[in-house]
Please model this.
Amino acid sequence: MTDAAAPPPVPADLAAVAAATERFLASARRTTDADLAGLSLLPGWTRGHLLTHVARNADSLVNLLTWARTGIETPQYPSPTARDADIAAGAARPIAEQYPDNESAAARLAAAAAELPPSAWSTPVRNRQGREFAATAIGWMRLQEVEIHHVDLAAGYTSADWPADFVARLLPEVVAAHGMNAGDRLAFEVRSDDTGFGATIGAGAPGTVVTGPAHALLAWLIGRGSDGLTGELPDLPAWR
Model:
């Protein structure tokens, strides 16, 4: 007779989320009202839109943690329309409102994660696109939001500042996602000149090789520029 399976541990990603959030908030703290009106790296979004989105994303993940804790379905966002309206409504707020909003939303998310019983981390939930996953993935979702949008804030934090372990984990995931959506596009190879990572995206022999630091390859593959890369860069589909 064997013991019942132990509940999954609290995800280690939460510590990384806390550290990334502190870095993001430090950049937000230095942002002025004039900065907020300037464009972020996301087309059509000001820095005010971006800061509002990051805060509301934290609250949306609190909803998923509530679902995992209670077993009662709690959508990530009430609707796509409501999500977009909240971002638009909050974008023009001054930094005196934007900064504490982000700080409070991050604190609510951390508290909700701390309150979740270990057994509840295996509860299946769904994101706004309808994809189902265990609640253990929520920390990794948030880490990507904070790290990528920190770069999008265009406040001095670049892909070169991403932690190496973040890049090492996300780059293969992004490569795999591009591979699944390659269709009949010409295959190409990506090759990191600092970590040794390499992969071919698409079927058949690669027609070109894109080389550069791992962080630069990741940034390019998710639509954040091509600085630091060499080789003929193929056109990529819009990143989700």
The longest helix spans residues 47-70. The CA atoms of residues 67 and 74 lie 5 Å apart. The chain is about 50% helix and 10% strand.
